[in-house]
Amino acid sequence: MAKEEKEQKETKIKKEKTEEATEEASEAAEEPETEQLMKELAEEEEPKEEKAEVKEEELAPTEEEEKPAKEEKAKKKEEEEEIVEERFYTVPLSRAWIVPAIRRAPRAMRILKKFITKHMKIGVRKETEGEEEEEPGKLIIDNEVNLKIWSRGIEKPPRKIRVRVAKDKEDNVTVYLAEGE
Q1: How many CB atoms are closer than 10 A to CB 96?
Q2: pTM of this structure
Q3: Is residue 178 packed enough to be buried (19+ CB in 10 Å), middle (13-18) or exposed (0-12)?
Q4: pLDDT at 156
Q5: Secondary structure in 3-state letters for 27-53
Q6: What is the pLDDT of residue 180?
Q7: What are the beta bridge partners of residue 161?
Q8: DSSP type of residue 159
């Protein structure tokens, strides 16, 4: 009850102020000060509505936020276009189980790296006359692959893992988790 009475009093006061402002505006229509008063009074009435609108705007994504997502998609497409070679492998990690339990996951990572460097021919020198030696491509392991190997802890890595391996123009090899895994 007290809240309703307060709200009624506030609305009455606002109406009186607006009526006073309109009377003053009609008396001195040429004065810029009355226009400013009218704007100020109108702004005082709108804050509650603006707060609700601001909350709605905060929840809805703006165009500026959508642009970075579109740029990221474009970058991914460019990266996919640069791919020279792409292969799928099932890498056997069972040899990691030979070592003591507290060394298995790191051993599985080393086995994966060795397997990929062998099969994708990373670091193989191309002997040609008159050309300088180029740096071998880098091996990049995606975070999802790392998480998959370490998912059950250091003592129990998976026995095998299915990966998608992509080689780009600069001989950089990236290892991704195969889709559906």
Answers
A1: 22
A2: 0.53
A3: middle
A4: 95
A5: HCCCCHHHHHHHHHHHHHHCHHHHHHH
A6: 77
A7: 91
A8: S
CB neighbourhood size of 106 (10 A): 15
User: Which residues of the chain fall short of a pLDDT of 70?
Assistant: 1, 21-81, 125-133, 181
Q: Could you state, in order of their start, the residue ranges of all structural domains in the chain? A: 2-25+32-60, 84-123+137-177
CATH code for residues 84-123+137-177:
3.10.440.10
In angstroms, the CA 89 to CA 23 distance is 83
Judge contact between 152 and 96, C-beta under 8 A: no
Amino acid letter, residue 80: E
What was the pLDDT predicted at 93?
A: 96
Long-range residue pairs from 155-159, CB within 8 A, at least 24 positions apart, any chain:
155/101, 155/102, 155/104, 155/105, 156/104, 157/93, 157/96, 157/104, 157/105, 157/107, 157/108, 158/93, 158/108, 159/92, 159/93, 159/94, 159/97
* Residue pLDDT, tens place only, 44-97: 655 554 444 444 444 545 555 556 666 666 656 555 557 888 999 999 999 999
Strands (DSSP E) along the chain, which ranges? Answer: 83-92, 139-141, 160-168, 173-177
